[in-house]
Each structure stands twice: as structure tokens, then as C-alpha cells.
Amino acid sequence: MRPDGAAARRFEQLFDAHYAELTRFAARRVGADVAADIVSSTFLVAWRRFAEIPADHPRAWLYATARGVIRNELRSRNRRDRLSAVAGVPDDARVEDHAGQVSEQLRVRAVLAQLSAIDQEVLRLTEWEGLDVTEAAAVLGCTRTAVKVRLHRARRRFAARLQADDNPGNQPTRRTALPSIVSEGSTRT
Amino acid sequence: MNQLTDSALARLRAADPAPARPDVQSPGARAMLDRVLSEKAVTENAVTEKVVTEKLVRPPAGFSTAGRRVAIGAAGAAAIVAVSALAVVAPWSPGQPASAYTVDKGPDGSVYVTVRLAQLKDPAKLNAELIRARANTLVMHMVPERRCATQPAIDAAFQLPSDATAEQRAAQKAKLPLTYELRGGEVSIDIQPSRIPSGDTLVIGYEFLSGPRGRTSLVRPVVVSAVPPCLAGPEAGALPTPH
């Protein structure tokens, strides 16, 4: 039975506004085949806790919830020792099996995959999901300042890695080539 | 940002692996919306719903949880209905370490769950998986009766008189939308969501006690019309007889 009422109508508006981007968000992380389950579970949590969703940042709330659902999904997969390919192997690795078909996009994604998890996450949220700093901070559970710092570092590292990948014979200096292996918040000179 | 970074980020955006923008008006999307709204409709009369879902998925960091306090306060006013207790108790001995639970869905919609009770410190993740499996079931850690004044709103079809005979208990157990078996500290549960009446929720209480006979695992399934804020189990010194 589908309920009527103002809350249901407002939830439907929320669903309509964010279904597509949430599906793309999930598909990037767990593959298109599982994305629908993630989105469904996320909206189920959202409906059950509808009153708690902040009116000013519903998208960030949904993304943060979806991240939690995805974490559970990946843990569940690992525990059951099945479907681990999607969880543990990036799309790039699957496509690289087809020698000679590595396109520019796959190469760029491979470079992204070389970065630390936090670098990848902040870049995905801002460049692919289109979140602003405030939304990304809400999703990541940190301050706007922290996101700004992380984003600045991540962009610099990604550009350096990509440049190194473009010019394999012209390796950049150690300082620009390896910063992504330094844990977030520390410095290397 | 310099030109090198700008160029790199432009290439990154172009390498977005996301599929084409899904159509929110597609039949699949509308069916998903209907399912979500319907699942809420099943339990939306339960004042305590928020209290339980709070345990299922933690609130995203940085967002207010003011609603939680309100919900918990309201939970005290939950309806009190006659009690039915179906307890299964078995002596427990420490077993080998393994994952605390597994959840698998059968082709007929059944949901198979195994739980190592001693290792189940927080059922929130298990409950999230049960939601995903559409089991319409919640697992709750039971608390001593003195700490849980609220009686669960057990569906009248699943209530038992306090002086129920063994035959009545057996008949009642056969009506439950689950079968379960305790082996040591592990319980195997076969949930049949299709047998849970519309509007009801299967709540499985569990406890792990130390008593005169050693450590004991206890399971108490109840079919409720409103999810209770807590579920009472026996005191350690008043354990029911194993069966």
C-alpha cells in the first residue's frame, strides 16, 4: 500500500530530484548491476528518516547514506566471498584484459586509481558528482577547510601523476611524483 | 589552479565511468519509489520506528540527530499489549571465531540467517542487511525485564495465554513466519517474509546469559504490529528450561 499525504509527495519530489545522480553515484562504485539495490536501500533509509534530512543539503545526506549502504554491501560481499570482482577490482582492470583497447578515459581512471583512497574520494565527489565544498564536507564528515586542503592536494597529485603517465620518459621530481603515498595530513619534503 | 591541473581535471571529468543519466520516470524507478513508500507504510504507525531505524544506519556525520531524542521520548508512550514468549534456550560453550552472521536470500523469497550470538555485539549491520533482503525482520538484543517496561504490541494472531499448554505452544510456533534452530552459540533462522501479516514486523530478540548452568543463548521471536523500543528477556537467574 502506497501512502498518500504531504510527506509522501515531498518524498517523491526528493526521489525525482536525486534518483538519477544517486544511481550514477552508486554505479561508479559498485557497478551498474548492483546500483539499483544501493539506491533502493538508500531511499528506504531516507524515507524512514525523512524528518531528519536537512532541507538545505538533501543531496549530501543521501550521498553520505549511500556511502554507508555501499560499505555494508562491500563488506557483505567480501564476507560471503562472492562478487568480489566488482568490489576489489576497478573497472579499468577488467577492461585492460582487452589489450589494445585502453582508451584515454581508461588511462585517466587508472591514474586516479593510483591515488590514495581519500584523494580518490574527494576528487570523485567534486569532479564526478559535482558536489561543492560544503556538500563534500557533509558527505565526508569533516570540515570545509579540511575538504579544501584535501582537494587542493588531491588535484595537485592527480595532475602530477597524469603528467608522469603522459611522459613516462620524463619523470617528475620525487616531490611531485610520490606525494599520494603520504598519508593525509602529513607532509613530505 | 594552473593550466596543468585544469587540463588534468578536465580529462578526469571526461573519464567519468557513470552510465548515461537514468530516467526517473522509467518503470523500474517508479517501482522502486512504490516499494520504498510501501515499506514505510507497513510500519508508519509505529511511534518507535525511528528508534529502531536509528540503529540500522548511523546518521551521516555532520548532520543533526535532534529527531532521535524526540523519537525516544515518544517511545515511552507505546501501546502495551499482552505478552507472548517463545523462548529457545540452549547451553552454550565457546566456539571457534567466525563472522557474527550471514544473510542469504532464497529464490522463493525466504531469508536464511545464521547468527553467532556471542559475537553479535551490535545488530545494526545485520538489520541493515535484513532490510536489504526485504525480510521485514529486526533483530534486537534483549534486556532484563526490569529495564524494559514496554510490552511489545504482539499481533493478536500470535499471542499465547500465560498458561498455554505444550500443544498450544507447538501450534503457535508452527504459525510463526520463521523456523529456527539453536546449536551451541549459533542460531540458524529461516524467515518467510510472505507469512508475516501485512503491517506487522518480525522481531527476533536474542540474549546471551551466564547462569548457574553456564553460558546460555536465548532467542525470542515475536510478530508485532509496532516495533517496540526494547524487548525483555529473562533475568540470568530465571532462565527457561532448554527445549
TrEMBL record, chain A:
Show the SUPFAM superfamilies listed in the entry: Sigma2 domain of RNA polymerase sigma factors, Sigma3 and sigma4 domains of RNA polymerase sigma factors
List UniProt keywords, sorted A-Z: Sigma factor, Transcription, Transcription regulation
The GO terms this record gives for MF are: DNA binding; sigma factor activity
The answer to keyword Ribonucleoprotein applying to this record is no
Gene3D superfamilies per record: 1.10.1740.10, Winged helix-like DNA-binding domain superfamily/Winged helix DNA-binding domain
Question: Is Cell wall biogenesis/degradation a UniProt keyword of this protein?
Answer: no
Gene Ontology terms: biological process: DNA-templated transcription initiation
Where does the chain cross the membrane?
A: none
Q: Which residues form the RNA polymerase sigma factor 70 region 4 type domain?
A: 106-157
Question: Superkingdom of the source?
Answer: Bacteria
Q: Which family does it belong to?
A: Belongs to the sigma-70 factor family. ECF subfamily.
A Pfam family that this protein carries is: Sigma70_r4_2
Tell me the ranges covered by the RNA polymerase sigma-70 region domain, including all copies: 14-80
In Swiss-Prot or TrEMBL terms, this protein is called: RNA polymerase sigma-70 factor, ECF subfamily
Q: Locate the region Disordered.
A: 161-189
Q: Which residues form the signal peptide?
A: none
UniProtKB/TrEMBL annotation, chain B:
Q: What keywords would UniProt list here?
A: Membrane, Transmembrane, Transmembrane helix
Q: Report if keyword Membrane is assigned.
A: yes
Q: What is the scientific name of the source organism?
A: Rugosimonospora africana
Transmembrane stretches, by residue range? 70-92
Which protein is depicted?
Uncharacterized protein
